[in-house]
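Bug report

Summary: structure tokens for L-ascorbate oxidase homolog differ between web form and batch submission.
Environment: batch mode, default settings.
Steps: 1) Submit the sequence below via batch. 2) Compare with the web form result.

Sequence submitted:
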Amino acid sequence: MGSNSLLLLFGFVAAFLAVSLVKAEDAYKFYTWTVTYGTLSPLGTPQQVILINGQFPGPRLDLVTNDNVILNLVNKLDEPFLLTWNGIKQRKNSWQDGVLGTNCPIPPNSNYTYKFQPKDQIGTYTYFPSTQLHKAAGGFGGLNVYHRSVIPIPYPNPAGDFTLLIGDWYKTSHKTLRGILDSGKPLASPDGLLINGQAYTTFSGDQGKTYMFRISNVGLSTSINFRIQGHSLKLVEVEGSHVVQNLYDFLDVHVGQSISVLVTLDQPPKDYYIVASTRFSKQSFTTTAVLHYTNSHSPTSGPWPAPPPAEYHWSMQQARTFRWNLTANAARPNPQGSFHYGMITPTKTIVLANSAPLINGKLRYAVNKVSYVNPDTPLKLADYFNIPGIFDVNKMQITPSNGPAFTATSVLQSSHHDFLEIVFQNNENALQSWHLDGYDFWVIGYGSGQWTPDKKSTYNLVDALTRHTVQVYPNSWTTILVSLDNQGMWNLRSAIWERQYLGQQFYLRVWNAQKSLANEYDIPSNALLCGKAVGHHP
């Protein structure tokens, strides 16, 4: 072979390798989102809502596992604003979590560029405002993470998928709602339910085909039940977990939770009711959408499908049927069941009891008698710059106490790679919903009454699913296991926004004395600085 031929061959190989390397790199996706106010009538009455790029709900964020997201968020509101990415783990990167313990809010007429990856994740998620009561005005949207083509999913590709953002809604402005809470009073019942920001919407599909419905409860306080007239719901995914594919007539979805179901259009061609109704609420609401067969010539008819029994026990029993599909891959090549969580001895057990005390004559919500208050300086910045006096790791105990409730900026400290057993004890008459940023966790047990160590015998240590938000029934307990493999400052909060706003939250400081980029990324060069962090340099 001549020298010219060799040069051509080497050139071809080099070009091929370069293309291969580019293809192998995770894709970059760039977005600019502008947040503004607008006037809409979601429940028939004109009111101020929060729009993103003029949309309510906000734009759907469709990603693939490990995509690099570069999202410039421009705040045109009259108040500081943040978005948080509900269920995205932000691996080694709590800098991008978008809550007040990790990020300074974006001032009015300013911007911040988020940079994050849905690292090793698939599934149905959401985003929403974490600041003030902005979530009550909108600013939320769907966030779907699709699998990479090289990683199989345990069901045939659906013909299409639909994102359904379902939640309670107030006609009252978010500023008025905030004023009610600031005065020490609870919020009244919401005024209705919305599906995708509307009281009425239609989803169309072809007879004989199967579609995925991605259902998220984006409300402030109310559990919902979801059902479709004449159709079964095959549950396939819960917040990134592939689950055993049971069929259901109806499914409970609590505040902050997401599920994915497959629905086969196997009925006579007509239109069918999609129904969402409130669960366990003082005031009952139902909203409907339409499942339209493309060859339908008949409108919806007949009664709405009835809800399940209004019993907490029924809902708890259904929750126990959600099981991990042990042989299915998630976002990684290895099967979910290859991690034998049930064979690991927990480093420690933490018992968290929620309460609704009066502090200085005003309603607050607390965890182990501590009601959280946000400082002016984000905890993550205070930690990074060694700014003293911002938070206290000794204020909150890891078991319930009998003393008086008080306010504090409470942080629980744990070591990187601890394996925690966390028991949520709910001694109130209201259902709770708890969310942990930065992680998913195994939901290993539900039970009534007081948790005691002998309840461990009832745990599911074989095929409990992982998720990021879990319900705790009234006068009951729920236990989770979580592997602290993600260093950072992580918010553990009530997903019921009134309770979060008035203190039912704290932060988990997952700490490793050895500073290493293998464990945690450096502070972003564009990090916003506020409070006592002003004057420091990223």
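Above is the batch result. After comparison, the two runs are identical; trailing whitespace caused the diff. Confidence is low (pLDDT under 50) at residues 1-23. The CA atoms of residues 184 and 361 lie 8 Å apart.
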